[in-house]
Write a structure and sequence with these properties.
By secondary structure, the protein is α+β, with helices and mostly antiparallel strands. The chain has four helices and ten strands, in the order H-H-H-H-E-E-E-E-E-E-E-E-E-E. It has a six-stranded antiparallel sheet with strand order 1-2-3-10-5-8, with no helix packed on it. Strands 4-9-6-7 form a four-stranded antiparallel sheet. A hairpin with a 2-residue loop joins strand 2 (about 95-105) and strand 3.
């Protein structure tokens, strides 16, 4: 939860509608593109839905915008400290994400997440905008990108085009990692705030 009291649900409600209208899409067309039911989209825009990782990534893919255009907060100045206990978790089928920071520099946007893959779990993604970088901190992580598979241990890194279908699997107990999503600045919506995004303020 941010210092302003805005939850992931609240931020997604405002930004999803803004993104959809900016692109001139109806709910029906967005439903077709994202494969998310029209009624569910309507609930999300009303702030009554229950967004998951799968939902947010599907919307990012369908709208062709960074995650930070959907989950945007204001950039703090000076020292930034993000306490894990203060950050709202975005959960999916096998992963818990804690958005920590968004950074815009040199024509690129980076979103920083604390990522935990639950034991004996797998998280699939059909793909989304950007380039994905993962650094394993603890555990053994199986990564599938399109038709290639690799296994990572503590200290190992993998990077790939996030538009490709990909999956993370915890191979032996839970996995702790840092996830970085990288975008070009011109991939942001014209209606996005002028200040760099911060997914979690010194919240």
């Amino acid at each position: 939860m941010s210092a302003s009291g805005d939850s992931v649900r609240d931020m997604l409600a405002v930004n999803l509608r803004r993104a959809r209208l900016e692109l001139g899409l109806s709910l029906s067309e967005l439903s077709r593109r994202s494969k998310i039911g029209k009624a569910t989209l309507s609930q999300l825009e009303a702030g009554a839905g229950n967004p998951t990782i799968e939902t947010v990534f599907s919307l990012s893919r369908a709208l062709e915008v960074p995650i930070s255009d959907l989950l945007d907060q204001q950039q703090p100045s000076g020292l930034t400290v993000v306490r894990a206990a203060d950050v709202e978790v975005l959960s999916g089928e096998g992963v818990d994400l804690r958005p920590l920071r968004g950074i815009e520099s040199g024509g690129a946007i980076f979103e920083v997440y604390d990522q935990q893959v639950r034991a004996d779990s797998r998280q699939d993604s059909l793909g989304h905008v950007g380039t994905e970088h993962t650094i394993v901190q603890a555990g053994r992580l199986g990564v599938r990108v399109d038709d290639r598979e690799v296994e990572l241990g503590p200290g190992d890194y993998v990077g790939f085009d996030a538009r490709l279908p990909h999956a993370y699997t915890a191979l032996a107990g839970p996995v702790r990692s840092v996830l970085l999503l990288q975008y070009r600045s011109d991939q942001r919506l014209h209606s996005a705030p002028a200040q760099p995004p911060c997914l979690a303020e010194a919240p």
